[in-house]
């Protein structure tokens, strides 16, 4: 399929996490896929959405809720299987034919790892934009900044709740 270069798909995931190492038998699972589309001609941000995902190999810890504000109840009510979420990315966000962007390499690595472990097709194409690295290079910082730090440098207010994928994706799109 020809690559669609009109809009960039910006992605930010949240995953199950713990203070320190993973409890025995638990793996980090994606619990939210935040997305939006960034129009490369106009800079317009559209289709900003947070897709909640049911963890299959772990549970949402109090530490994770404190960090992300995502609760087990929210996941219970609105969460979908990871496989379904991946097919939404493919069908509704054309994730395989668009360039996609995230802040750092974490989101890419977690998708690769989780898709591999669960035997689910990787939903993205080969064109990934690492906004964290790009920002450090463009600004000649000599070191990479976190998302909040990058917004501060750009004097863009952090919109919404930090560590919610839906809001992080929009803020990353503004940086990009
Ligand atoms: P972020 O996009 O910065 O909200 O982080 C994505 C995911 O990384 C979170 O959902 C957590 O799984 C993990 N993470 C981020 N910060 C921390 C932290 N301080 N301690 C443990 N895990 C973290
Ligand atoms: Mg996030």
How would the blueprint of this fold be written?
Elements: E1 4-15, E2 30-39, E3 45-52, H1 62-68, H2 72-78, H3 82-93, E4 98-102, H4 106-118, E5 128-130, H5 131-138, H6 147-154, H7 165-175
Parallel strand pairs: 1-4, 4-5
Antiparallel strand pairs: 1-2, 2-3
Helix pairs in contact: 6-7
Bound molecules: adenosine monophosphate (AMP) and magnesium ion.
Characterise the protein shown here.
The chain is α/β, with parallel strands linked by helices and 176 residues long. It has one domain (4-175): Nucleotidyltransferase, domain 5 (2-Layer Sandwich), CATH 3.30.420. Helix content is 38%, strand content 22%. The protein contains 7 helices and 5 strands. It has helices spanning 62-68, 72-78, 82-93, 106-118, 131-138, 147-154, 165-175, and strands at residues 4-15, 30-39, 45-52, 98-102, 128-130. A 5-stranded mixed sheet has the order 3-2-1-4-5, with helices on both faces. α6 (147-154) crosses α7. It is globular, with a radius of gyration of 16 Å. The model has no long low-confidence stretch (mean pLDDT 98). Bound molecules: adenosine monophosphate and magnesium ion. Magnesium ion (MG) binds next to β1 and α7.
Question: In a nutshell, what does this entry contain?
Answer:
The protein is an alpha/beta fold and 176 residues long.
Features:
binds magnesium ion, 176 residues, 7 helices, binds adenosine monophosphate, alpha/beta, globular
**Overall pLDDT metric:** 98
Silhouette: globular
Helix and strand content put the structural class at alpha/beta
Strand order of the largest sheet: 3-2-1-4-5
Tell me the span between the first and last alpha carbons. 25 Å
Number of helices: 7
CATH T-level fold name: Nucleotidyltransferase, domain 5
Level-1 CATH class name: Alpha Beta
The major β-sheet equals: 5 strands, mixed
The helix/strand series, from N terminus to C terminus, equals EEEHHHEHEHHH
């Amino acid at each position: 399929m020809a690559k669609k270069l009109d809009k960039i798909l910006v992605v930010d995931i949240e995953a199950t996490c713990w203070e320190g190492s993973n409890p025995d038998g638990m793996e980090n699972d994606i619990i939210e896929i935040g997305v939006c589309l960034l129009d490369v001609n106009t800079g317009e941000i559209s289709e900003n959405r947070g897709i909640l995902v049911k963890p299959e190999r772990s549970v949402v810890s109090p530490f994770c809720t404190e960090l992300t504000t995502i609760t087990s109840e929210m996941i219970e009510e609105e969460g979908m299987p990871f496989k379904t979420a991946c097919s939404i990315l493919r069908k509704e966000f054309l994730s395989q034919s668009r360039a996609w962007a995230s802040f750092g390499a974490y989101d890419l690595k977690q998708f690769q790892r989780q898709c591999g472990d669960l035997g689910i097709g990787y939903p993205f194409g080969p064109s990934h934009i690492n906004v964290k690295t790009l920002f450090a290079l463009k600004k000649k910082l000599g070191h990479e900044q976190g998302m909040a730090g990058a917004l501060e440098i750009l004097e863009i207010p952090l919109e919404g709740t930090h560590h919610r994928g839906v809001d992080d994706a929009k803020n990353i799109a503004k940086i990009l």
